From TrEMBL:
It comes from the Eukaryota. This is Sterol O-acyltransferase 1.
Amino acid sequence: MTKHSKSPTAAYKASGGFETSTGTLYVSKPYRSKASKKLRALITFAPRKSTFDITNDRSSSNEFRTYVRSIETNGHALNLHFATMFSQDAVTLALSDAVLVLSTGICVPFAKALKRGWIRYYWTGVILQHLLQTTILFTAIYWTFNRDWPWVQSGYLTLHSLVMIMKMHSYITVNGQLHSVSEQANDLLASMRTATKAVGGWEEAMAVAQAKQRELEAPQNSSSSQLSTPPNGNSSTSESTPNGTPDVPEGMSTSYVDVKTANALRKRLAAVAAQSQSAPQDSDVGVRTVHNLNKDSSPLKDASINGTSTFIVEADDLPEGLHPHPLVYHPDPQISDMAKDYSELQSELLSSGPTYVRWPDNITWKNFAVYQLIPTLVYELEYPRTDRIRPLYVFEKTVATFGTFALLYTVTESFILPYTPRADQSFLRSLLDLALPFMIAYILLFFIIFECICNGFAELSYFADRQFYEDWSVLTLHRWNSTSWDEFSRKWNKPVHTFLLRHVYAATIMSYRFSRSTAMFVTFLLSACAHELVMVVVTRKVRMYLFTLQLIQIPLIVIGRTPAIKRNKLMGNVVFWLGLYAGFPLLCVAYVAY
């Protein structure tokens, strides 16, 4: 070093900088080298440790070293104050939850009473249904206040009560509506029998209709025979008549299908036959029996059209509801129209396959127990099913549930509860402190419920429809970006959305002739009431903050549907995420501090 040059530290101090105890140099302004006359920023290297290094004495003060700090302080990885709080009275909570779930079993005798005609669904059944649901819900709420549980236990039992109420409502409503359809079908069948008296009676009308059906099908059979006759004029199958038409027993209703469709039909018919054989023989209404469904007398008869393997389907051997009533072919328009309406009503009483469950054969304890396991809030006669349970998949979702819950617990214990807002604390500061932790906690909780728990129960119940949420986006690029609140409400929670869509939105339009706008308002109003009810139970306060924010979504949705906003998806996405980030801490501050 020359006598005209300064040492690095001297030059550094001359530049107005300072050095910390850890050796970090901060330069407030560049210094000018006398040797080169150039401005230089001082950069020095010294032995230092990274922030996350466990040998760094200062690393224990870092927020990301929660587990290490907790072990050093308390002897265990996590602070268990929160665990002690939410595990309080755990046995009583578990027993209460079990009683809640078992109480929903009253739906089965209720549905059987509808089946036997002891109760008419409209309107006696509807009134009893809502009284039953209201009683169960408010009994659970009263019990939470009686036990004086903390907010976790109270919130859990209230939310689970709402879930059970929705499942009960869907089960009773669907069976009640099908009971009404069955009564309409029976009344219409009686009217058809009365109408046929004017044309010679029921048997004569059936014979005329079958003759008309064969007459209508004759040109199709003739066309098929021309296609199936080879150039030498010989039939392509030994089971065909001399003109090339497959040999079909007289009076049998038929249709032609390809090999793939035939195989599918064989599987469906076999399932129907198995269900029919296991059903009670004295059942007045049930799955229609497929008689003599064996290798020698299958309703699928081999044939050939134009050299291609084809099959004839005996329509009369299919379950009632899969084919129209024979009287739809009757020349009398009044009888034909009634038969068409009757066929449509019968199709509503039958599931879409593949086993074709028919109402009221679904009203069993086993069917209801399986429905309770299936992670859906909408009841159907039949769901798409998987063929097996994958133990490794169940194990994966179980591990993911507990692992993600550990992260959720850490975020709640370390970054939310210590920053619980107070009335004397700055409102803005509370929002900033809680915005990111609440957003992380929300995403973790979303993952636990809709990805882990729902998929786990779906696997155990052989439920094949696993779309419990969508990507929150109208785009098809699999980006988790909603551009409006109505899009988010449709996609983030599919089970609740489908329930509200069928049993609130569509029901009010069909039953009360509401407009779409009015039905949407009623749907949001009911949802807002349910959300506010949970907050009342959890906080023991009636503030209506969440109720108000829920209803504010309606004008936001209307604004978001304007062309100017819909075209600017980036702006919509920014507004959506700002609202999502601000919403959770805003509610926390409002309910806790005010």
